């Protein structure tokens, strides 16, 4: 590790500010030594700018450092709380934000610091009330390195996502996930029991920070977060809730089983740029794994990612100049898929788990990041296992588009749960039909 850090110092060149926390530039020589030629370097440089605009060019190292009171703390303990200067934020008017650091559990059950934020609308909606109904929000993939924390982002990694809840009058408690922000541990990307811990204990910590939240709560998540809240819905945490405080779950475009997606639509998963992230996810749990599902070129380029600490866009851009065959190893696929499937099925929802409250899944049929047929198959499996799950499918909608297109439905569904309205108790499949698809706005994929 000391060698790696020393090596990094001579391969990085200045970029942005002295307090930058991710997407460091690397020297041309270092890039070329790791199979990243002119096209690769051009994509890397352009995408670094995008990621830094997203996650902030000034990383708050002081806040994200492990709190002095972490030692001896218990999961759910609040370690740090501080308001975020609204002059830094790019949010809708009337929103108030606090960053938090709290204690969660790592994948192995050990205590670990995690960070996130609490966002509040202008005032409670209910007349003469001082209580905010509260939703735990789980974000989509931001990256796998510490500097890719949504709570450091100027817009808190909102892509027409969690701010929809604020505009509806809900308080939002949003975890970064352990390993993002605070670097005490590696981010166990899509090893969902770890993210379940982070989501659940963020809510416990938030209620210790402020006594303004409703007793009842729900969870909403997108992409990685959609898989995480689905797994939360099956967890013992909410099953042990004797007071029925946990009301249900909304999973938006859930990346529940990524290896199933690869097997169902290999070219789409490769072209999306997510496969290197999936390989790193397995490596973050099993460090001896050498990314052998990737081609020699991509394995070499992943050294650049580790050194430069690339967030989502730049990491995906590392493979943008390669064909599918140039990105993967056929021998690696044959040897690694059984291992990756075993890991996936141990970590993912819809693997025989049972929910205690209703679950709504919202899936775009034009999704280029989450394979819709896999979501449908997992819905069918969950229903067969006796769970109450509604799947709503939106033709033509892509991965992020479906959040907004489906908002009238899923926000109303959240409203109904807080209002105490009962659900059917059965599974259902709803196929939405746009009024005029030919003239409907199709916003570009974000």
TrEMBL record:
Signal peptide per UniProt: 1-18
Gene Ontology biological-process entries: lipid catabolic process
Keyword hit for Signal: yes
One function term, GO molecular function aspect: triacylglycerol lipase activity
Top-rank lineage group of the source organism: Eukaryota
Record's keyword terms, sorted: Signal
SUPFAM superfamilies assigned: alpha/beta-Hydrolases (SSF53474)
Keyword Signal: yes
Any one Pfam family match given in the protein's UniProt record, by short name: LIP
Family from the record: Belongs to the AB hydrolase superfamily. Lipase family.
Name this polypeptide is given: Serine aminopeptidase S33 domain-containing protein
Species the sequence originates in: Aspergillus nanangensis
Upper lineage: Eukaryota, Fungi, Dikarya, Ascomycota, Pezizomycotina
